[in-house]
Amino acid sequence: MQIRDKFHGHFKDIFLPSVLDRIIFLHTKKSKCMPSFLRHRSDTIRIISFFLFIVLLISFQSCRELPNDVESNADLIIINSTEEIVETGSSVGLDLSIPAATKAFSVTWLTDKGRIKGTGNNVIFEASGNSGIATIRAKIYKNGVFFAEKTIKLPVYKQRVILKADDLFRDPINVIPVKWQKFFEIIRKKKIKASLGIIGQSLENGNQAYFKAVKSLVNEGRFEIWNHGYEHFFGRTNARGEIYDEFRNTSLDYQIEHIRKTQDLSRQKLGIILRAFGSPGNGYDENTSRALEEFPEIRIWFFAKSRIETKILIPRVMDVEFPAPTPDFNKFLQNYSSKEKLITLQIHPYSWQAGDFIEFEKIIDYLISENVVFILPFEYLKSIRSK
Ligand SMILES: [Zn+2]
User: Fold this and answer.
1) pTM score
2) In the structure, what pLDDT confidence band is assigned to residue 48 with cuts at 50, 70 and 90?
């Protein structure tokens, strides 16, 4: 008991200033308006209770400073980028959208790659020469007090890759052929994108389940379909003994008709306008160039060398199948160059064996390790228009 009393005396004399002493030890004993725990007869309990009470008050106050409506406003603050990807050494605009009371907010920008030019809500992000993901943070202050932080991740690339997957058609039993389904799973698993050359006739003969499946594929955002002819044939021999393809050594009218059928079917059955064309077997002639002029909505022509002012020609600069349809990782590596700004890789998943899928995955993993960005033909179009 003596020790306890001594301790109390010591504590009061040294640690409690006289004002505080009075509040806790004198006032609380007498005042009926103080909470009951502050009038407790044990000094220790009163001291602890007093500090707990203060802590409670402070936390209550800080809660009041961030009412729910302000917190939810932080969710409305978004960073928009003028483009979703950035080439090494180039720049994009960033825009911070703050819903209300803009004058009360200020922002500090931070990035782990490249640099931010400018201040305020609209700035420029300049990518460095290194590829990879740039994490850009906007620290937002309200009346000088930290309020919220928003982040955007921008892929910085040296090379863009279009996967040109040929020969999508309907399977009478599985709707989408099993090998195509396996291919789509790889694309989803790797979080990349692929463009699919649809054979027009499959839309003619197709049913609602097929249309629905193709539409939902496109709606995923990872896939784009393009015109791969209507009948899809090549290497036939005509009555005069000449070799002909759907789009080679056939009449202009015939070629126009075969492009049109696939364009119309896609529009009617899927509600999708096809923006790119690639012929079966990549065979084409002068009539193909003229036929394509009839379709201003088709903007991209895969693997053609003909000069045609109205179309964007995407050349074949690299391969993954040696020979088609067999992907070969080692041969791909021997031919691969990271210097090409855009590469379009032609593949035939429907014709692959189990081992071919494994080789393809190795090639994709390698490209991912090189920080390439997989894009769709329409995204390539968009990037050209914005320049
Ligand atoms: Zn084909």
Assistant:
1) 0.77
2) confident
Distance 280 CA to ligand 1 centre (A): 4
Ligand 1 centroid – CA 281 distance (Å): 6
| CA of residue 370 to ligand 1 center, whole Å | 29
The single-letter DSSP state of residue 348 is: -
Q: From ligand 1's centre to the CA of 189, what distance in Å?
A: 25
Of 81, 82, 87, nearest in space to 160 by CA? 87
SS3 for 308-339, per residue?
Answer: CCCCEEECCCCCCECCCCCECHHHHHHHCCCC
How far apart (Å, rounded) are the C-alpha atoms in residues 130 and 133? 10
Instruction: Out of 31-40, 75-84, 212-221, 305-314, give the one with best mean pLDDT.
Output: 212-221
Cα-to-centroid distance, 337 and ligand 1 (Å): 26
Record: fold of 69-157: Immunoglobulin-like (2.60.40)
Distance 262 CA to ligand 1 centre (A): 14
C-alpha of residue 147 to centroid of ligand 1, in Å: 55
Q: What is the pLDDT of residue 50?
A: 73
Ligand 1 centroid to Cα of residue 196, in Å, is 10
Q: What is the residue extent of each domain of the chain?
A: 18-55, 69-157, 160-385
Burial class (CB within 10 angstroms; exposed 0-12, middle 13-18, buried 19+) of 80: exposed
SS3 282: helix
Q: What is the pLDDT of residues 94-121, one digit of tens each?
A: 998 876 556 788 899 999 999 999 998 8
For range 182-207, the mean pLDDT: 97
Cα-to-centroid distance, 49 and ligand 1 (Å): 80
Q: Please tell me whether residue 22 adopts helix, strand or coil conformation.
A: helix
Please compute the mean of the pLDDT values over residues 64-74 and round it to a whole number: 49
- The CATH code belonging to domain 160-385 is 3.20.20.370
Ligand 1 centroid from CA 222, angstroms: 20
Q: pLDDT (tens digit, 9 = 90+) per residue, 245-287?
A: 999 999 999 999 999 999 999 999 999 999 999 999 999 999 9
C-alpha to C-alpha distance for 276 and 271, rounded to whole angstroms? 16
**217 CA to centre of ligand 1 in angstroms:** 19
